[in-house]
Amino acid sequence: MLDRIDQKIVSTLIDDGRASAETVADRVGLSPTPTRRRVRRLEETGVIAGYRADIDPDKCGLELAIYVFIKLQSRDRDSIAKFESRILALPEIQRCDLITGAHDYILTVRLPGMKDYNRYLRDILAELPGVFGIETSVVIGQVKNTPHLPLGD
Q1: pLDDT tens digits for 30-51?
Q2: Does residue 51 form part of some domain?
Q3: What is the domain range of residue 33?
Q4: The CATH number of the domain where 18 resides is what?
Q5: Rounded CA gap, 136 and 119, in Å?
Q6: Considering the domain boundaries, does residue 52 fall inside one?
Q7: pLDDT at 121
Q8: In which band, very low, low, confident or very high, does the pLDDT at 92 lie, cut at 50, 70 and 90?
Q9: What gap in Å lies between CA 65 and CA 57, rounded to an integer?
Q10: Global pTM?
Q11: Going by C-beta distance under 8 Å and a sequence separation of 6 or more, which residues neighbour residue 32?
């Protein structure tokens, strides 16, 4: 569990992952040395899993965002392992979550356009091991996209 200062540190680094220790310290009300120690501990314990650039997919030519719902024919360990192993090798898939309900997985896919998705659906997704059903939802607009976590005040 994170205390209030750790929560503030995490929130500050979510806002600006390149913030200096001095900037973070100023925002959380500590001096830089204990702030550095806390950040290091948060990194070592995996609370802070890494630092990344926030890239705009549209500006990279990946204007089409799609949610793909996958149902597997069988949910035995071998089928799941083969499917997940193949998913990990596909760069167009930004995210893959194992879910409950009518489907087994939801994929977030980014591609340049609908023609590209048509090809991807036929040549890649339909050929994934163990796939029984595929449903697609196209994102037509984004309402909210924030990395923030509900950590408290």
Answers
A1: 999 999 999 999 999 999 999 9
A2: no
A3: 4-44
A4: 1.10.10.10
A5: 14
A6: no
A7: 97
A8: very high
A9: 9
A10: 0.85
A11: 21, 22, 25
